[in-house]
Amino acid sequence: ETLMLSIFARLKFSSLRNQRIPSVICETRTLTESSGPEINPSLTAFKDDFSITVRIKTKTDGVIFSKLDLSQSLGSLKESVTQKKIYGCVLCICSGFVRFFTLSHPNDFIQGQYGVADGLWHNIAITFERLAMKVCLYVDGIRDTQVTTFHPHAMDKIEDYWSIVVGNIPSFVNPLCNQHQCKAFVGTIEDLLYHPVSLTLLDIQHLVTRFKTFRLLAPSSQQSSQQSSQQSSQQRVAFIHLSTDRLILANERREITSYKWLSTPQLFSDTPFVFEKDTLSLGKRIFGVPFGDGIKFRQNLIAFSTDSKFIVSGGHWDNTFRISNTETGKLIISIGHHKDIVTCVSLTANNNILVTGSKDSTVMVWEDEKGISKGGLDRSRLVLSGHSDEITCVASDHLLDIVVSSSLDHKCLIHSLKKGRYIRSIIHPNEYPIHLMCLAKSGEIVLYSENDFTLHVFSINGAKICSCDSSERLSCFVITPDSEFLITGGEKRVVTIRHLHNLEIVHQLPKMDYPIISLSISPEEFHLFAALSDGSLWTFSLISSHSVKQTIISSLENI
Length: 559
Known about the structure:
By secondary structure, this protein is mainly beta. β20 (302-304) and β21 form a beta hairpin. The protein is built from 5 helices and 42 strands. The chain has a 6-stranded antiparallel sheet with strand order 2-13-4-9-10-11. The protein starts with a strand and ends with a helix.
């Protein structure tokens, strides 16, 4: 399934384009067979070079929009049609393909080659260069086709401030459009925008990034429905770790499974990755000892080293955290200095510092200059106090020199990573228990409580940046490595991408079949992984060679 997703690299224009903000013709309109056309008395003149961009979803042919002069009387308009002296342009779908033509010369038209009447979202762009009289058509960030044979005067009269009709054309114009099979649009039209420049291919590709959805692993369903449900619950993936060449999964039965992984993002790639069983591994490996009663296996309960050679796990019944070899599952070291069950762990990027949090309300910092996998951790270097209830999440960053911990006591504490010095406290705005916490590389801290389903973003200095109601019980969230986006998943079965600095929704991926329990992003940011509660694993893979952080509007508004 093809998806539209704006994410990753910032969009930049020349100073000239930065001053030209696109005009919104139509934000969102859902049309049925009985819907009438929406007439917009346009204040937009199609002068010189211009571009039109729009998102559509439909299963049938239909007119997306038309632009013509409706200021005359009906009799005058019909006479103009008869004499073929009416001017304007039409963007429509004909035989499943995008088509653009002018009313004065309807035989001169441009038609795409990629089908768009499939019930999925598609981004369409039309660009016009007056000097070259060139019209280009783009579908989903790919140049579909272009022509330079338009009649030299075909576009001249379109520059006037004429009306734009969304979803249809006036009936009296039909005699000119019979060959184009112009019908009323049935479906949804979003973000119909006029740009006073002829956008380049790079601009268009910056406006839309194409993702495909792939199911990598299916749940086991060979037994009865009750047995299958129990097995899926035990085997569902709760942690996803991706290195440059391997995908490693861990489930609630403490099983580690490895797969060969190779990212191959190509513009026209049907499968932009290689995913297969790792025949050199020992199959499923068991790490640690059983989890304690009431421990829910979540993302923050284990951590992998950056080189994927070892795994750190908490949640064990004997109050220990354990470091195990990823290849064999063999125990490297077991440490039990906490007085209660270890509820969360975090590794720094250099693999030298480990942070653990526990039900005993303490946070411990462990360090071994040779690497914590060498078995040299016999005691904690720092014991951080200040919480009065169970620690729910810990995060650390050796470059920022901070340790961040959250707790059911509604507090988030920040300490120095090197010296353990207390820096500051962040109190949940409603004084609710904090169930999820994440630290961005740029220092922003995201808090979430299941009591009110609200997301809060704070700066490293403790200043509140923004808040929003997620409207669901979240199971997980991750921040993109560039600290621009927050990606969330939970009971509503929808992956939501938000701007980190204002929490506005950038995009929501199609609803999955089961709740989302784990999320992960590949190091090169071409793949987003989602594990579902039924045990299945999905990836949303980038298949465009260009990607973006923001839409063109937000980019221009932020200048």
